[in-house]
User: Fold these one by one.
Assistant:
Number 1:
Amino acid sequence: LYLIANRKPNSYMYSSQAIQKNILRLVDKGWDLVIQWIPSHCDVEGNDVVDHAANEGRQLQEVDYPEELDDIYHKYVGKQKSGGNLYGIGKVKLPLLGLLRKKIGNWFWCRHGDRKIDTIMTGLRIGRVSLNKYLSFINLSPTSICPNCSQDVDEDCTHYLLECDRYNIPRQRLATSLHNLGITNMDLTLLLGGAEADCETLKRITEELATYIKATKRFEEP
């Protein structure tokens, strides 16, 4: 309501202008428009109890699971498989979106400023990206085999980032850049955001991975 009523809001300026224009357009067409604000939590029965429990949970850093994490993980993967919605998560414990966390504290996250590159990186993290392994799964490729090398293996995230012969030169440049940061072991977890490092190092890793993605030209439009 603040955005709609304020002619010059401090944020979401374009969104507020679009809302205002749409309201005027509907009114001009003869619509009777009523805007109602419903407080999300105010006077909701049980809300105070839930808030109290949530605050207590936030203070609990060590999580006591009634089952082993690996058992929970395998149950999750089994349900994903039965639902036909598995993106390779069963074979690789992805560092952010595919891993059960043992603690609730802050999790450093470094995004890339380029929206397209950031989207590709997110796809690589969850295995839902335009590589033949996933494309064949959704029937957009006749094969899951890598079309760019002679290894006759599935083109998945691991193969694209660490194995494919076609990208040996940009991969070597990536490894050299990481070595200059003091990183000698380049693996999937590290590249996709799961490194135990400070924010500046995570940012540098993200930048180097972006350079690799651009150099391979694998995700460019045909």
Number 2:
Amino acid sequence: RTRSIDDGDEDGKAKALGLPGVALAVAHKILTAVKGLWIRSSPWLMLVDIRKLSCPESVGDALHRFRRNTNDFGYNYTLVLLFVAVACVVTKPFSLMVIAALAMLWVWVFYVRASEFHYNGQTYSLRAQAVAMVMFSAFVLMIATNVSQVLMGGLTGGFLLCVGHSVVRAPEPPPEGDAE
């Protein structure tokens, strides 16, 4: 049995549509995951309330704020981190093209053509193909192009933004009856 993009897609409709169908199925899964994060996130007006911003009094207070705010706004911070990383990649068209080309190659190898590969009398299983694809993708992303620098810059910037916000935002008081 070949693999299918969607667990509920027994007929392999996405695979039958070829690369565009698989791309749409993957995009749908990504959008569903982001929508789930959005639904579970705290209200955004609470996150950006300027009246709650203040300097922590000590390192212990900063750590307390960090723990409380990441607990309260963890999903919001994840969305901010994703947005900053995606914005960094989108502003560099070459990086976007490299990532899109690698994604299409992965989809083609594992979903459109998902079978063993025969070359020079040797047969390569899907596992061997996966190892080769990981090595090729790592080479392209980390050595041959600057895509890893763009991604790491975006992730680092988003991480520092989230950590900085969680430290300077005074946490909400605990509800009555809750022991902290």
Number 3:
Amino acid sequence: MLSRGFLSGSDIELKLTHMHGISVMHSAHIHVQWELYFCPENIVQRSVINGEEYTYKYPCAILTSPYSVHSMSCLETENTDYERYVCYFGSTTLETIGSSLLPNDALDARQGILFELDGGQAEYLKQIFKFMRDEKYPHTQTQRALILGFIVNKLFEFCDESKITRVGESSFYIQSVLRYVSENLSEQFNANETAKFFSVSRSKLDRDFKSAVGMTLHDFVDICRLNYAKILLRSKERSSIAQISEACGLKNETYFYAFFKKYTGMSPTDYRKMYVLVTKNSKEINETDFDPCGEM
């Protein structure tokens, strides 16, 4: 089951996270950025990308494109403690790196790429990731982007075709549907028109979408609208509730209040007030991480 429509707002251009503990990501998710997942440990893992499942036991890196439906989790014994890095990056980061500095098929929007690494290669890349996030040596965003470009090049240098698996290709048009929906949230949604736009029957669209995403197209649209509303409510721009309602494709403000409360248990106004209160009391939180209502 898809856990949410957006990981964050589209303004995140380069973000590196580091986790060392048990896996908590078992539900599929999507976001508007590219993602590079790296696990340096020789453990059994499972990845599901655009509805296709892969199980493997080796240190790995997985590069997924925007709007890929994906999840990565550990299949070792319960509560296995393991390490992984996840880097999210957008178009500005790619422009900084420069297309000439990346392998030709590194960022094919139709697929993800699974890299099989050996222990030495994984340890080498781990040290680079550690350097990239080391607060003793603060890097500018440009420097971090170039380090990321170096990492991607190293992955292709380390892995010949026998060590590379192209993943999640069969549901490519569904990936395009996800992008289409998220980029047109302000419009009135019509599943029949969406099917026509992608030159498929409504029944095929419904069947393929449910298979790849794990929910109906209508439910996905609701998730996207809910999460986009949360992003706008947290924004410093302080748009009015009416403006947010319209931006989410819900032209009736009264319906927007009912819609938001149905899924969060609070009104849009109360959600905004809670965000202001929480951020005032915590200097660590940022607007893309806060969500007092949990996931839909």
